[in-house]
Specification:
Elements: H1 4-20, H2 26-32, H3 77-80, H4 83-88, E1 91-98, E2 102-103, E3 107-115, E4 118-125, H5 129-135, E5 140-145, E6 148-153, E7 162-167, E8 172-179, H6 181-185, H7 194-201
Antiparallel strand pairs: 1-3, 2-3, 3-4, 4-8, 5-6, 6-7, 7-8
Length: 209
């Protein structure tokens, strides 16, 4: 069952996506949201070894709604990140599962992980970095992760979520973390330890440009 923490993360991603989406009618847009139930092996990540379990595979990246001039998402967080990196980040590889992938005017491929103190949602998208900077202007600050351009986001509308966005060749990857009950009991503050989690996972996501 999806935890309240992960629902909060999903809400944060939905808020961003709602602001950057084009004006597509509601019914077709809903049809274009692809979930793991209808997913199949796609070209995503084909240039390197990936996890092959069927339930982890991303949806097809082409449909009637994707011809919007945006590049195809290359990095899929559910099949590119190896178990060793997940464990190093303090998360449980056995909890790896697809979130709600969106393949429409823009694409976000999503994977969720649980940990003892923190849960994490990773979303890889083709929304331009400049759009992300504009969207979170005033509630973010720049930083670097392993030398890569990044953004620390603390949106007051999502008080439980600490976000770190890192730039990629086609857009950015959004790491959204929430504290578990145990994390709250341990006294973790909103963003305690999140940079360390992202630092451990960043080498898995491919080049910045």
């Amino acid at each position: 069952m999806i935890s309240r923490n992960l629902l909060a993360v999903a809400a944060a991603a939905g808020a961003f996506m709602g602001l950057v989406a084009c004006s597509t009618p509601a019914e077709p847009r809903e049809t274009a949201v692809a979930t793991s139930e209808s997913s199949e092996v796609s070209r995503t990540g084909s240039a390197r070894p990936t996890l092959t379990e069927s339930r982890l595979q991303p949806p097809p990246l082409e449909n009637d709604y994707t011809n919007q001039g945006r590049p195809e998402v290359v990095f899929d967080p559910c099949t590119w990140i190896n178990d060793e990196a997940v464990s190093e980040a303090g998360l449980d590889p056995a909890t790896r599962r697809r979130g709600q992938d969106v393949v429409a005017e823009y694409t976000f491929l999503t994977c969720n992980f649980d940990g003892e103190l923190r849960n994490l949602s990773i979303e890889s998208g083709n929304v331009a970095w400049e759009e992300d900077l504009q969207r979170y202007s005033g509630v973010s600050e720049p930083l670097t992760v392993n030398g890569r351009e990044a953004l620390l986001v603390q949106d007051p509308d999502q008080e439980r979520v600490c976000g770190i966005h890192v730039r990629t060749e086609v857009g950015f990857v959004m790491f959204s973390s929430t504290r578990t009950f145990e994390g709250n009991e341990a006294g973790l503050q909103r963003c305690d330890g999140v940079l360390e989690i992202v630092t451990a996972l960043e080498p898995e996501i491919g080049p910045e440009n």
